[in-house]
Each structure stands twice: as structure tokens, then as C-alpha cells.
Amino acid sequence: MQASETASETRPRRRLTKVGRVVSDKMDKTVVVSVDYLRRHPLYRKTIRRTSKFKAHDEHNRCKVGDLVLIEETRPLSKTKRWIVREILERAQEI
Prior knowledge:
The protein is mostly beta strands. The chain has one helix and five strands; from the N terminus they run H-E-E-E-E-E.
């Protein structure tokens, strides 16, 4: 087997996905998505809710604040943007 054969046999890496809420849509083609997750405290064993924010690419500016979205990891698109909006799972309710 040569190196070119082994490279063609390897499967593409499965992309990481996350579900979160849009907290900002003020940038053009970019939204900020807040993702909550649970971690257990190493000493006290209490479950703690943590939050991470990710900038995600929204090509058609369809996302609004409060939308529940699925984001997918991709190549670096800018200095801080490494995620794209794959789909909008739930629209924010209008008041």
C-alpha cells in the first residue's frame, strides 16, 4: 500500500455540531450563539450549568435573536468565526 491509497481509504472526519440560542444578530452574516452544557464539580460533585458563546456564519441573515439553531464546526472563516449555522430548529416567539 502506498500513501496515496491510504489517504483515499480514510473516511472524512465527522463534524462537531452544537445546539444553542442566538443571543446577537447585529453583525452582517454572523450570529453569536450561546450553548449551555452541564459539568460536574470535581470536588463537590454538584452539577453546574456552564455557557459558551460561538460566532457562527449565517449567509442569508435568516437568524434572529432567540432562535434555536444547529451549528456545525468548519474551517476558520475569520479571526474568531469557526462555525456555520446548519439549520434553524425553532423560531423565536414574537411578542
